[in-house]
Amino acid sequence: MGSDSSWLRDLGLAWLVARAILFSLLGILLLVAFIVFRRWYRGRYFSRLSQRTVILREQWPDILSGKIPGSAWRLKPLDCQIVEGILLDNIEISEKNQLPPFLACLRNSGLLDLRIREARTSEGWQRRSVLLALGRTRAPEAVPALVEALESSSEETRVAAVRGLGRISLPQAALPLLDLFATDELNVPEHTLKNALLNCCREAPEVLLPYLDRTSGSTRELIARVLGELANSGLGEELLILAADPLPEVRASAARALAKVQPEVSFPVLSTLAVDVEWFVRLRAVIALSSLEHTGKVYVLLRALCDLNRHVRQRAAWTLARMHQGKEDILEKVVATEDNYALQAFLSELERVGSLDAALDGLGNILDRAPGAADVENVAAVVREHFAVPGKNVAVAAAAGKR
């Protein structure tokens, strides 16, 4: 009896193992069947997508002009997806004067109204994708729906709404962003907001000016950075006011913007900013001076070449080494500063642009013609000392120094 009960118990354990193996095999077969079916279905879908794309591309001029009404493709999900993709791609690469036919097609077909309704009723990832698609339409009617999404409790949805408004690229899309940002009611990453404002205010940077007067702290700094990148020659007087702002970041942004203003207006202010207490303000001023055509900028750059900050010195040397004025004249002025760091920076930049030999040869020629020229002789002596090579020939000293 004992042996019979033991046999039954062993058989029950084997049966359980067999059942587990059978269920595992069944699960594997079902998984393989699902993968095969999915591949077949997707292959069929992409084949249909390709066929319908070719057909609709052939009909595209009639679809865009309205000869083929929107009802012919609007209620067919696949055709609607293809036409919407073609429309949005064309809108993104079109100039402003080329937009009306594409926007008219969106409006007349009801596709724009559909996306606006989905932006207000959908949730989650679907809403975020619709918000981005609305931004790609560049249609003013999409702005209210995008603004409503800025009040969402989801940060991802708010970011999608900001990006959508940035893609609209219209000043009226920037106003809600600025209103909420000025009152600290917009909680999105700064770089996302900055990119959106850059796109929206590119054609009308003056939209930003009233908000500079209403804000302070980091909010004012971000708006000033956007204005600094977009400023044009029509904002001269407003930029002069910003150059005296107590916030260093705002002064730096003003220096960047002044590079796009007439030199007669911007040069005196940039000369002052080039001796600002903050090094990055001085650096921005020197960079702005490099793009100005003004005869007096050499003296400001020479002063910046002796700056305590190496970044400022390097940028001043970069600008001086690329000026059209005679390099030997500038070299004499650099040596006259009696600043070894300034001389090192300038000579290094001359060598980098391939003008070092020409400048030193020019000094050598002057010495040959007028050996008693004290100023030039002093310059040559300083350069020889810099390269630690004895002799009168400055060019030879330079060559030896480079070795």
Described by its quaternary structure, the protein is: single chain
- Uncertain segments are 369-374, 388-403
The shape, in one word, is: elongated
Helix content: over 70%
Search tags:
mainly alpha; 23 helices; 0% strand; elongated
Protein architecture, described:
- 75% of the residues lie in helices and 0% in strands.
- The model is unreliable at 369-374 and 388-403 (pLDDT under 50).
- The protein is an all-alpha fold.
- The protein contains 23 helices and no strands.
- Helix 14 (248-258) packs antiparallel against helix 15 and helix 14 (248-258) packs parallel to helix 16 (279-290).
Topology:
Blueprint: H1 2-58, H2 60-65, H3 77-93, H4 100-109, H5 111-121, H6 124-137, H7 143-149, H8 155-168, H9 171-182, H10 190-200, H11 209-214, H12 217-230, H13 236-242, H14 248-258, H15 263-273, H16 279-290, H17 297-305, H18 310-321, H19 327-336, H20 340-352, H21 356-369, H22 374-387, H23 394-402
In short:
This protein has about 400 residues and is an all-alpha fold.
